[in-house]
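Retro notes (design track)

What went well: tokenization of the new backbones is finally stable.
What didn't: we kept losing track of which sequence belonged to which structure.
Fix going forward: every design gets posted as structure first, then sequence, in one message. First example under the new rule, 294 residues:
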């Protein structure tokens, strides 16, 4: 008897998450050796908590773990079931943007990348997602109902994708924080997507949650490895895309708000830091205070 869609979501989601967690856990030591060889090592200084040089290319093992989790599931599903889920086409639609963000993170971990170049690459990745998936054209706001955005939706979507990517990157400052928050957010998105019958988002979110959980044992304090920008930027971008695409398919305010609120911690943390920088700036000129926020 062929599996129902609900069965695929439950069994496939759990299996994908488990494979992603195991692969990430076992590949992380390999990524550490690679990081040491290519110079992707975070050196201690007065602004950092770690006391010894620490590899920072854990994002490579996390991406590999998540991809393998999804790949094994795709190989096990019958072709007609794949066509019914439209999973392959949805993954291919966002894969170029995710790969671009990951390569940006690797370059930053190994050589360092300027802020301007980072933003340009992130803008290109966000643009690729908007071209393949479309933009938010309606905001479902509590007490106000639906608000039509029109072409402004592209700006809102762009700010969301780039903003959440960087917000998640900024919380990667304490051992286990980014991986822990990532696993919680991804699990929340997976549950909401499952309730709504969104199979593709359920499985991708399960893969992300598994990758984060598989990385956590190596990242507990004192961490033996960091995910680096290759991990934090990639996880942040994938979570932003999932929440964005989930809101495109949602018909109710609650379905839109849950994945957005799940990302509240990195978003609020970033806004508070920016606000503090603006208020505490010693320069009275408005333009300088605004620049200092970034």
């Amino acid at each position: 008897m062929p599996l129902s869609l609900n069965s695929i979501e439950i069994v496939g989601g759990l299996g994908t998450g488990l494979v992603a967690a195991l692969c990430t856990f076992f590949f992380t030591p390999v990524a550490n050796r690679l990081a040491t060889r290519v110079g992707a090592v975070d050196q201690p200084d007065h602004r950092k908590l770690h006391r010894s040089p620490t590899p920072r290319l854990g994002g490579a093992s996390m991406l590999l773990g998540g991809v393998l989790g999804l790949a094994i599931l795709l190989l096990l599903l019958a072709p007609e079931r794949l066509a019914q889920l439209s999973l392959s086409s949805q993954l291919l639609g966002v894969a170029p943007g995710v790969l671009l963000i990951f390569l940006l993170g690797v370059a930053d971990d190994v050589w360092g990348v300027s802020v301007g170049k980072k933003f340009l690459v992130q803008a290109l990745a966000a643009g690729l997602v908007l071209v393949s998936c479309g933009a938010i054209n309606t905001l479902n706001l509590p007490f106000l109902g639906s608000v039509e955005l029109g072409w402004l939706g592209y700006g809102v979507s762009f700010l969301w994708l780039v903003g959440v990517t960087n917000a998640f990157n900024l919380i990667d400052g304490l051992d286990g924080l980014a991986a822990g928050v990532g696993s919680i957010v991804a699990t929340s998105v997976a549950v909401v997507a499952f309730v709504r019958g969104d199979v593709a988002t359920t499985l991708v979110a399960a893969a992300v949650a598994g990758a984060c959980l598989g990385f956590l044992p190596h990242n507990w304090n004192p961490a033996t490895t960091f995910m680096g920008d290759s991990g934090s930027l990639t996880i942040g971008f994938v979570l932003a895309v999932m929440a964005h695409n989930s809101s495109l398919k949602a018909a109710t305010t609650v379905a839109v708000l849950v994945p957005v609120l799940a990302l509240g911690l990195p978003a609020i943390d970033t806004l508070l830091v920016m606000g503090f920088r603006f208020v505490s700036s010693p320069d009275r000129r408005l333009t300088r205070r605004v620049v200092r926020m970034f």
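Added context from the reviewer: The radius of gyration is 19 Å.
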